[in-house]
């Protein structure tokens, strides 16, 4: 795990990806720590473990998708020393359209009872 940056989307992606890729190990560790002799540590582990549910897992995957697939290229391009304003505007429009489409797809799934 790494510290998050307030200004770099890539750090958010790396953090999401680390949790997603090590999810089984994190669950295993929290389970082990929940049975620890140290009561404070065990309570913290049980609290974290109880916060992990289906919504957390889906949100984790969605955020990885948003931070990487939808915004990583935009973030990289905007940080480039040779960034072009017209290309930046076009890229921003594409990301906004992608996110709007993803939101509408979720609304349609909810409407058909496929999501809560």
Q: Radius of gyration, rounded?
A: 18 Å
> How many alpha or pi helices?
6
Summed over residues and divided by their number, the pLDDT gives a mean of 79
Largest sheet: none
Helix content: over 70%
Beta strand count: 0
The percent range for strand residues is: under 5%
Structural class: mainly alpha
The ordered string of helix (H) and strand (E) elements is HHHHHH
Taking the alpha carbons of the first and last residues, their distance comes to 31 Å
Tally of distinct domains: 2
Overall shape: it is: elongated
**Unreliable segments of 5+ consecutive residues:** none
Question: Can you describe what's shown?
Answer:
The chain is mainly alpha-helical and 116 residues long. It has two domains: 1-52, no CATH class; 71-116. It has six helices and no strands. The longest helix has 27 residues, at 85-111. The model has no long low-confidence stretch (mean pLDDT 79).
